[in-house]
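Bumping my old thread because nobody answered last time. Still need a sequence for this structure:
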């Protein structure tokens, strides 16, 4: 009898150990899944329209579901519409006869996202990219002609003679030089970083690195002259479609006692979030988007396709420093825009890490596409200027392209 009891107890212990072991293995796998920011297996979302299923289940999110609701309000709306028979053939041609897309047109989903701390409102409906007059053509011949014609009267090709300078002079690096903006758009200092390469299409990685090195030296020089100026900001528009007044490769830079505009909005949001929840805003943004499959880590920096993006195919780069990883990631993103998506007109805005300050704040760079460079139709309307940000592309697509390029796992 005692032997039977002993065997029974041993059997039960054995079963308990097996169950415990399986549980630990599963937990370990889940922990690995949560830690892995470079694989899109975490939330298993393939496109932005599927986020509604995820919101219902909270699959694989852990505490990040709480973060999602702390930072964002997300609403998915849908309704049916009727296409008259007289339009059927035309709509089908716009959608290349794709029956699934035709069904989507009849019953569209709009994903509305509001950031509770910046109050940015962003609406996603990727099927809008199928509208007439917004699809991308082969822009290379148009751009090459534009670049060639702009060489004749280019002031930036001879910056020493044809651009203004600060009263203390200029910053010069291997392939870049600074100038003072003759027509200031912001004060007290508004500079320009000019590459010695006229065409953006001719830039290599070292050219990118050199322009940002020149910008950093300009920030340091201004701040050394006036120690209250610690908040550096940078803008880059590529080609006239994106807002550039000169074809020649150049960056706009400025510095102030505080961030201004949207840079200030982001900075204040991070402070308010910490005060309200005792948490790091940008760390939570990174963790959340990585778990959603909208972020990845590359060396010491992160690439995020924000739920509250401003432009199509927008990517946010976050890093503690503007180092080689940061510049290499920016270069890679622009290569993907150009080579994979055929998009060359881009806009970029950046806040620099605080200069000569004990306060730590990461470098934040947002870059997005501006549509077909040769199009006569504008990509910005009263919607973006006076209402909300309208995104016509799927953020999951562009982050997959980036991940595949870097890691080759798709």
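Sorry it took so long. Here it is:
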């Amino acid at each position: 009898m005692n032997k039977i009891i002993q065997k029974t107890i041993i059997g039960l212990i054995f079963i308990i150990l097996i169950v415990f072991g399986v549980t630990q293995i599963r937990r370990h796998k889940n922990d690995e899944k949560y830690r892995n920011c470079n694989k899109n297996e975490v939330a298993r979302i393939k496109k932005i329209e599927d986020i509604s299923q995820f919101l219902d289940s909270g699959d694989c999110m852990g505490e990040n579901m709480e973060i999602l609701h702390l930072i964002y309000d997300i609403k998915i709306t849908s309704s049916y519409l009727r296409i008259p028979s007289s339009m059927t053939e035309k709509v089908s041609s716009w959608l290349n006869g794709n029956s699934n897309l035709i069904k989507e047109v009849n019953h569209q989903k709009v994903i509305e996202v509001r950031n509770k701390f910046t109050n940015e409102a962003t609406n996603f409906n990727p099927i809008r990219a199928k509208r007439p007059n917004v699809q991308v053509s082969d822009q290379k011949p148009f751009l090459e002609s534009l670049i060639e014609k702009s060489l004749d009267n280019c002031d930036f090709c001879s910056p020493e003679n044809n651009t203004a300078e600060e009263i203390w002079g200029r910053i010069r690096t291997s392939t870049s030089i600074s100038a003072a903006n003759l027509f200031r758009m912001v004060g007290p200092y508004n500079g320009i970083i000019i590459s010695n390469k006229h065409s953006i299409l001719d830039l290599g990685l070292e050219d990118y690195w050199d322009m940002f090195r020149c910008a950093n030296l300009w920030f340091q020089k201004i701040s050394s002259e006036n120690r209250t100026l610690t908040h550096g900001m940078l803008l880059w528009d590529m080609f006239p479609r994106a807002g550039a007044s000169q074809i020649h490769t150049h960056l706009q830079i400025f510095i102030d006692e505080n961030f201004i505009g949207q840079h200030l909005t982001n900075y204040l949001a991070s402070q308010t979030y910490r005060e309200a929840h005792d948490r790091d805003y940008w760390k939570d943004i990174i963790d959340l988007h990585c778990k959603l499959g909208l972020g990845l880590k590359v060396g010491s920096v992160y690439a995020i396709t924000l739920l509250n993006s401003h432009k199509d195919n927008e990517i946010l780069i976050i890093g503690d420093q503007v180092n080689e990883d940061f510049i290499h990631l920016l270069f890679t993103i622009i290569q993907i825009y150009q080579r994979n998506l055929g998009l060359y007109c881009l806009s970029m805005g950046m806040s620099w890490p605080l200069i000569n300050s004990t306060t730590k704040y990461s470098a934040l760079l947002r870059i997005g596409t501006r549509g077909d460079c040769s199009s006569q139709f504008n990509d910005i309307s009263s919607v973006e200027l006076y209402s909300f940000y309208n995104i016509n592309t799927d953020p999951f697509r562009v982050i997959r392209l980036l991940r595949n390029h870097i890691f080759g796992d798709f």
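Residues 175 and 196 are 5 Å apart (CA to CA). Let me know if any region looks off to you.
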